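User: Could you walk me through two proteins back to back? I'd like the raw sequence and the structure tokens for each, with a short line separating them so I can tell where one ends and the next begins.

Assistant: Of course. Protein one, sequence then structure:
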Amino acid sequence: MRLVIQGNNFSDKSIVEINGRIVSQIARQNEGRIVVTGRRKDISLQVGQNTIVVINGDKRSNSFSYFFEKQKGASDDE
């Protein structure tokens, strides 16, 4: 699974929090884009509503919602 977060003022020290849990599977990031990869459960995504926050030093982004719908026939590991 690949989750792309687009925004402004990200840095190489930006951290992604999904559903209250810090995820460490950041594959790439630059000033305007963060790419998180891994199995859905490893990056803390749930089927249904998810809350995502980007943390940059002592600043936190506004939380935003992401609705994940499991693909028909997909396993829980995806």
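----
Protein two, same layout:
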Amino acid sequence: MTRDAQVILRGMSGLNWVGADINEVSPPLDPMGQTAQLANNLMFEELCLLTEAGERRRAKGAPKRRSAAKAAKKKPRTA
């Protein structure tokens, strides 16, 4: 399963990734830690894909996203 999921994720390289998630890992139900290790490996692959997609967007000249706190500071206030 690990290798198959890795191959699928790596095959999605080149897509415009904007988010990733691991649905559920329950350590009490996984005493050997295999599920946690699989989730760790898959999240690493997802982070690599997200980084790659972000670098492609920046190379195209896409504007950087501002954090919500910075956006709120620059917003003009009206009474």
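The radius of gyration is 18 Å.

Let me know if you want the two compared in more detail.
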